[in-house]
Amino acid sequence: MGISIVIPFFNEKDRLPRTLSEIEVFMQLHPKMIDEVVIVDDGSTDNGVAVERAMRWMCRLPLKIVRLEYNSGKWAAVREGIKEAKGDWILLLDADYAARADELCFLGFDLKRSKGVAFFGSRFMKQSVVSGKSMLRTIVSKVYRVYVRLMYRYATGNVAPNDLQCPWKLFRKSELSLENMSVNRWAGDIDLALHLDVESIDVPIVFTHQVGSKVKSSAIFNMGFQTVVIAYRFRKGVIRGPEY
Questions:
Q1: CB 148 within 8 A of CB 164
Q2: Which residues pair with 196 in a beta bridge?
Q3: Which residues in 38-56 are b (16+ Cβ under 10 Å) and which e?
Q4: Which of 82, 104, 128, 203, by CA, is between 20 and 30 Å from 122?
């Protein structure tokens, strides 16, 4: 198979249907590009409303719905989605569709022949178009980007992808050491990048910040702490599986 889109979500009864609708349009315009869409419910507490609404696309999309019994964290859901995906390539997206599948059309790579590379969307390239972000969120994003890239450099000695925190990521499933990813909730972006032993290629994207997408200050602290822990473990060669 080709590309599997993997989307984790938690209580996204309004935004997830809009995202699936957008993906449906994309697949109609590019019918041979996406093989399946895997959505992973991270133990939502909305009485199954988001899943029920998503099921309306079962007859319109090659849709697979995976459900976690408990809220385990975004990256626990991502791992489960990757496990269930059948595609050779995985495209990670968020449920709010701030970054879109459309960027696949502009890669300029033959994915069937491409090996040893992973593509990371970046909001910080000159060709990228970013809208809807507040000044405060932009500043926090830029500062955190520098921090994460420094931690990646510390862990590997290599230059990090341009924008590790961007949700748009495309990679071969077989080239990810999924069993060695160690976090469930925080800092999964750097965790994933460190366990892709491939060349990283930055991709300019169109990114539209969506209303309702918020990051609490406590989450920023947790991500910052977990990032340095992951970098330290990787540098020291400490291999640990998921922390449930």
A1: yes
A2: 176
A3: bbbbbbbeeeeebbebbee
A4: 82
Provide φ and ψ at 158, rounded to 5°: -110, 160
- Burial (0-12, 13-18, 19+ Cβ within 10 Å), 80: buried
pLDDT digits (tens, 9 = 90+) for 211-242: 765 566 677 888 999 999 999 999 988 765 55
Q: How far is CA 36 from CA 1, 60, 206, in A?
A: 9, 11, 22
d(CA 103, CA 210) in angstroms, rounded, equals 18
Most confident stretch, 90-99, 202-211, 221-230: 90-99
Among 208, 26, 199, which Cα is nearest to 105's?
26
Measured CA to CA, the distance from residue 223 to residue 155 in angstroms comes to 16
Q: Are 35 and 62 in contact (CB under 8 A)?
A: yes
Q: Which residues contact 160 (CB under 8 A, 6 or more apart)?
A: 148, 149, 152, 153, 193, 200
d(CA 94, CA 78): 10
**Long-range contact set of residues 106-114: C-beta below 8 Å, sequence gap at least 24:** 106/203, 107/170, 107/203, 109/201, 111/2, 111/3, 112/2
How many CB atoms are located within 10 Å of the residue 223 CB? 21
In this structure, whether the domain defined by 1-97 belongs to CATH 3.90.550.10 is answered with yes
- Rounded to the nearest 10 degrees, the angle between the axes of helix 217-236 and helix 135-156 is 10
Q: Where are the domains of the chain?
A: 1-97, 121-165+174-198+207-238
